[in-house]
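Lab notebook, page 48
Experiment: co-folding of the full assembly
Goal: obtain a model of how the components sit together before planning crosslinking
Operator: M.T.
Materials (sequences as entered):
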Amino acid sequence: MGFWEVTLSLLEGLEYTCLIFALTLVLALPLGLVISFGSMSKFKPLAYVVKTFVWIIRGVPLMLQVIIFFYVPGFLFGTPVLSRFASVVAAFVINYACYFSEIYRGGIESIPRGQYEAGQVLGMTKKQVFFKIILMQVVKRILAPMSNEVITLVKDTALARVIMIVEVIQAAQNFAGYGLMWPLFYTAVFYLAFVGILTLLFGFFEKKLDYYKG
Amino acid sequence: MPILEVKNINKNFGELEVLKGIDFSLNQGEVLAIIGSSGSGKTTLLRCLNFLETPEKGSITVNGKTIFSDEHKEYTDEEKRLNRLHFGLVFQQFNLFPQYNVLENVTLAPKLLKKGTDEEINQNALDILKHVGLSDRVDYYPCQLSGGQQQRVAIARALALSPDILCFDEPTSALDPELTGEVLKVIKELKNKDTTMIVVTHEIEFAKEVADKVIFMADGVIVEEGTPEEVLLNSKNERTRTFLSGFGNI
Ligand SMILES: Nc1ncnc2c1ncn2[C@@H]1O[C@H](COP(=O)(O)OP(=O)(O)OP(=O)(O)O)[C@@H](O)[C@H]1O
Ligand SMILES: [Mg+2]
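Observation: model returned without errors.
Model output:
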């Protein structure tokens, strides 16, 4: 089993890693915003329901949530409802949306009331105030905690193997069955490269928003 | 017909009665100065006029049109938004939008409200910025400006929507003393252009100079109302005199 053969096999696993990562990000970023609005709702019952939901999702290990999404619908309906891959993505999206929602909430609540009022007094609608004034300031403020969360997501993708999805780690583990251990350590290179690119990207965004203070 | 008629405005925060029946009226082009000690309800009054707070009682009439009345059912967000357009408000803390440069701060709302073509709006904004003396700062960001410059941008931003009545809440009290002059000068120039204004201020000298009418407020009521001479120079009212003596006047 040569180096190239292992690399190719790990790259195949990386495809799943990347897919889970990208789908989670694309879906959880907007969903998190919706959840954060729910938890900040002036309609108290809704806020309590959403906060309880966030508590449960953040309180249960993600690995367990992946298992639940895959197996529980099967128990309930007698037949699996979601494919392995869809179960992973669903669990990841909901889990990360909850974490994102808390970051958004912190960011939104840190914007001074005067910014909303200045927009309102100028005759803007609530929607315009949020999207034209508040959102960009929130983005700047939450960039650092978001980069943490996104980097954690890269490594969390390895949890997908709990329901037999062959992502990078599982791909390497398959070689361990033949007595080959080094592919497992080799996977670190892939993660480091992935996270390295993200770090550069977030640095770039931070620079882009550096032009103003506040 | 007065441009603004305020009748019997009452505002409570829970148990606390902050405004207890405020009445006054203002004619086109007049400047009203509101003075009074801390907590007397001056900011709350301006916030009621700008629909940032909803009074429990009273009515507000602009140009003969009643835009607030306690007899009306609850106002929708959209009604409040449209009513607000009669007023402009310049905040004590400026509240400029930090991510936009000076020109964008001034043009943002007119563009969103489709007050004209982008070119017209930009040109109008540049004209206003020229009047407030900021032609050379149009592409600066708020964080790159002094407090006095920021407040002049805030004034330009409010003017860009040509409100009927422009309100100022202590426009100079967040500024270093040497910067107050440039802001007060802009307000004086606006008076010369017939802008109707309500200015909450602790600058008694400025009020004397610029106001047509002065209101002294205490504990949520108007204690005294009159010309600057009557209220600021020759007040017969004990409370007004006590307040003014704190500024070394009288
Ligand atoms: N949102 C609020 N909730 C509760 N009480 C409030 C609120 N806003 C103002 N108050 C109270 O209303 C009273 C009047 O406040 P206001 O800000 O109108 O006074 P002011 O005359 O502007 O004072 P200053 O000269 O210090 O600015 C104060 O006692 C204040 O504590
Ligand atoms: Mg005040």
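Interpretation: The pocket of adenosine-5'-triphosphate (ligand 1) is lined by residues B 13, 16, 18, 36, 38-44 (CB under 6 Å).
Next step: discuss with group before ordering constructs.
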